[in-house]
Amino acid sequence: MSREPVSTLPSRQPAALFDFDGTLLRGDSMLFCLQFVLRRHPASAGAGLKLLAAAPLFAAGLVDRRGLKEIALGMLRHVPEPERGEFFAQFTRTSLVPRLRAAALTRLRWHREQGHRLFLVSASVDLYLAHVARALEIPELVCSRAVLDPSPRLLGANCRGEEKVRRVLSHPDAAAIDWEASWAYGDSAADVPLMARCGHPIAVTPNGALRRIAAERGWTVERW
Question: Within 13 Å and on the Cβ side, how many CA atoms surround 218?
């Protein structure tokens, strides 16, 4: 008597994907990082002036987000290379962890208890987000990747908007995610492509653009 073959394919699993700035965190992590480096390495002020000069060009559309972010990375290059690991770890402990939303930590705990796959998906850079992911016990980090030497720059695209979706779908385990049963949390319209991918999109203390989109699409809005 023949037997039906037993499938060895893993069952698909719901995921919970969290934006960082404005969602898990109150505020902008890169701004906090620049303030942190300026206090500890005043020589970074020159690079800070370049960033200030670039701000109106960005507002006028003459500098894109990637260019502005790479100018900002110029300030971080003033941290001596041997000290950078501890510098970003200390920044995470003292400047970011205290600004995490209490409701966000509660929601993370709930998803962990449900056995959902946790992702941190952010346009911010891995230099400090790697420490954030460890602190929050989030195993999967999808974010902008940066280097400071020999010149500050991003490696690959800025992880924002559609790029978030592309990066998540290129993850080795993306095929094992049950997208209809998954959750995505964001605070701005830049998070819409990833939120739309999931069956449970949650707009967290959203800005005006995301609030309008959430209302049009019937998405859940929560105030954290």
Answer: 1
